[in-house]
Amino acid sequence: MTKKTIELENLSVYYGKRCAIWDMNVTFQSHTLTGILGPNGSGKTTLVQAILGLIPITSGTVQHTGASIAYVPQKKEMDLDFPISILDLVLMGAYHRLSWLKWYNKNERSRALQIMESLGIQHIKDRQIQEVSGGQLQRAIVARALLQDADFYILDEPFTGIDFATEKLLITLFRELRDKGKGVILVHHDLSNVQEIFDEVVMVNSRLVAAGATKHVFNADSVEKTYGDKNSLLEEASLLFEKVRKGKT
Hints:
By secondary structure, the protein is α/β, with parallel strands linked by helices. The chain folds into 2 domains: 1-68 and 150-249, 3-Layer(aba) Sandwich (Rossmann fold); 78-149, no CATH class. The chain is built from 9 helices and 9 strands. Strands 5-6-7-3-8-9 form a 6-stranded mixed beta sheet, sandwiched between helices. The protein has a 3-stranded antiparallel beta sheet with strand order 2-1-4, with helices on both faces.
């Protein structure tokens, strides 16, 4: 099976004069479970949003090589006051294939229920999203992404605020997706289980620190460089940006 890729070349994103990420060159591959690691404010979410085209890129390129992408944002980005059932939430994953009038297509509903059963949430299909636990809601959000049947799944902090059983189930699911040829990319913060979960890691702190096979690049040196002095990296990136900007004027 041919591998698909997401390729970032010289990618930079600035908010005004503030550097979020600077000059990143990274390739994400299908058949791979990849972790994006870095401290708070290091540009992890910005990197994901740039890949998805949700924010403007200052310079560089993102190429998907024809790959489809499903995105699972952090739960805090969801409007939990919106009146919608768990099943309706999951069925939103089929929207790109169907019009609103055909949203409740029997085949899609059947697929949604099968996915929900595999995630242990079929029994709460009629509950409102405000009425379930954090772990159950996260399973439903992942189920919505699975219904899209994408080539890549990008999840932003999927293990935050969930119980151990849900985390274990999701890790098993992500491995199964990888083994089926999908690319799974997780923004991740817990360094204690990185070696257990990921085939590859991308370590960022405004700039790319290290990327590659976990067993080769996830070590004490790369952790120190990633989680060390963030301000020095930001200052360096800002100086480089100003040099480039002035060179163009």
